[in-house]
Write a structure and sequence with these properties.
Seven copies of one chain form a homoheptamer.
Chain A: E1 3-5, E2 9-14, H1 17-23, E3 26-27, E4 38-44, E5 48-49, E6 55-56, E7 65-68, E8 74-78, E9 81-87, E10 91-95
Antiparallel strand pairs in A: 2-4, 2-9, 4-7, 5-6, 7-10, 8-9
């Protein structure tokens, strides 16, 4: 069972502390012990609708590892997994 | 008797706790005992009017199961049923 | 004597408790003893002017029964009748 | 000596209590003893300039009797008369 | 030495109490002893730039006497004169 | 070494008290002993990008003396000089 | 391992106190002992998407030294380096 995000939203799963170290060495300094802002993209919406009705596809792709703003998104549990739905605009960058 | 939502609004009925478990296994973690944010779509508006007067149809369809932002919408009682009118922009994703 | 609403405004008359029960069975749960948000549409404006100067007619018609957001509109008394002027965007849906 | 309102502004004179009763029977319930929101239109601006530079004429005409939002406008005294300059968007409707 | 206002700004000089009485009989009721909101226009900007890059000239002309919103503008002293720089949108109307 | 402002930003140097008196006789009344809002323009950005991607050049030129809003801009020190980066929209007018 | 910023975002590394002195002599006066606002650009997004769906490339290039607004951006650690992701609009100017 999956959750298909709408428009410019992304379904992401946070990368655990360990995963982050090995994966990309990109961690957000834990000024306060907050949840890591790195995640892996599980599903993407079709994109934002511009004022003249065209679809502006999202740039982020399924499988990308991304860094995103601290307080972004809404938490959802899908098949027992703790996931997050964020807007593409919350994404700071893609880990290469 | 029905309620036809206007423009980009949706008429939805919350999925009860049980329904959510079996249906899609998608529940919003109850940080506070809030009402579940999963619902079934009963009716949809024709869509948002863009600045140049065109209708931007909604993507969500009648019968879809959706996850939506916690504090979204206005509660209405229709023929004894507790329903909710939300905006399409409140929808995080469609359960597949 | 009548009051012709301007642009995207509507002149409506609240449906009394009784009327609501029989009419459409749609009542807004009285979390707080607020005024019912169902009304009958008495007059409509010609519609909103879009940025390029076109008129975007309102969708709601005279005679429609509508459900609208709780704190919407300005109260006016016309020929002794307690009426309300609301914006079309305050309308959640049309009772069918 | 007159005051020519600019763009989408209107110069109006409040209808006194008495005038309102006979004129249109439209009074705004005095929840608090506020100034009546009915007025007669003395002068109108040429209209709002849309984003692409066109003039969007005002719909309200000189001589119209209008109902407008409670706290709208700026008071001005012209030749001893207490008048008000409001925006067309403050007008709820025209009394017919 | 002069000050050429930019875009949709106007350089104005307040009309003194006396000037107002004789000139146009238009005074803003001094609910609180505020500075009079009538002024004479000394210089105007070339106009606002619309979104598609065109210049939308100001309607107000040098020499006009205007009434403007109470708290508008920034005070400047030019060659010993106390003047004010306001936006055209702060002008309620032109005294004719 | 110079600082090239971006888009609609300007690099300016405040005119000292003395410079202001002789230069243009334009001083902002020191209601509170604030820093003078007159400055000389050292560098300008290429201009604002409009919604359809065109460059809207700034009107202010290098060498102009300008009056600007009191609390505008960010202070920077370049080669020991105390300078300010402001937006063109903060400029009230150009001293002629 | 790198972090590719999205759209109009930039990945930058702060210039240390020493680097600033020699590099461009541009320091932001430390009214309060805040982090220096000068940085070197390590990576740039493809640019902002305008309303009609075109890409508006960023003006700032990799290798530029920039001055940016004090409280801008989100801190990220990449391969042990303390970096910052800011928006191009936070950049006051490019050090030449």
């Amino acid at each position: 069972m999956a959750l298909q995000p709408l428009y410019d939203r992304l379904l992401v799963k946070r990368l655990e502390e360990g995963e982050q170290q090995s994966e990309g060495g990109i961690i957000i300094p834990d000024t306060a012990k907050e949840k890591p802002q790195q995640a892996s993209v599980l599903a993407v919406g079709k994109g934002r609708i511009t004022e003249d009705g065209n679809v502006q596809p999202v740039e982020v792709k399924v499988g990308d590892k991304v860094v995103f703003s601290k307080y972004a998104g809404t938490e959802v549990k899908v098949d027992g997994d703790d996931l997050l739905v964020i807007r593409e605009d919350d994404v700071l960058g893609v880990i290469e």
